[in-house]
Design a protein that fits this description.
With about 210 residues, the protein is an alpha/beta fold. It is built from 9 helices and 5 strands, in the order αβαβαααβαβααβα. The structure holds BIS(adenosine)-5'-tetraphosphate.
Amino acid sequence: MGIALRYLFLRCYKIFFALMFNLILFGPPGSGKGTQSVNITHTYKLQHISTGDLLRDEVSRQTPLGVEAKKYMDQGLLVPDEVVIGMISSKIDESPNARGFIFDGFPRTKAQAEALDKLLEFKQTQIHLVLALEVPEDELTRRLVGRGETSGRSDDNLEVVVKRIKEYHAKTEPVAGYYHTHGKLERVKGDGTIENTFKLLSKEIEKYLLPA
Ligand code: B4P
């Protein structure tokens, strides 16, 4: 399809079928969700919602929620669903005029995925695409332990990273099956450079949305 025709098609699609474009960036800890979200947010002008960042903010302000969440995060465990779902709901409400959202690190359980569907349905929108970053486990460990050497993040040490990856396989990986069943999942190789991974992700996004 020529560029002009593709542009016209995408515009019509947006007008008739979707007033927003909502994307989930999915993958194991250290797969680059946070890193790539920054590039995607900048290029496509989507509103970035990272549950990891929101939780770390609560922790640093020592709110009751943060004090509770820290107990789980420091052990490499997922924070309870009801805490995370409540946070997401108010975050979506803060940006009623967003072009769309990029959900980074959320949903991480099937209960969170179902809750997100309900929240978006209430706002007469939906998840359009789920991009799952695939990175070998030894590379995940290398990245996170490497970051821990400079970031001071209490969950980026070998012992906790191993638990986070285990928690991912037990509770989060099944979420990919949920979106696959709904025909929304695309797998993308995430073990190349940051730039190459961004190109692969952009190729998938631009089937729906052009840069703003
Ligand atoms: P998150 O903050 O979501 O982060 P993450 O899984 O650690 O990493 P991400 O995939 O974003 O990797 P990043 O780009 O940072 O979670 C932290 C904790 O919060 C969880 O363990 C959990 O306890 C809690 N939590 C969060 N959301 C939750 C939810 N929905 N429900 C329950 N609990 C929740 O990259 C990692 C490193 O790799 C960086 O140093 C980066 O520079 C490097 N890197 C990235 N891409 C690279 C590349 N292509 N090549 C080389 N290095 C790369």
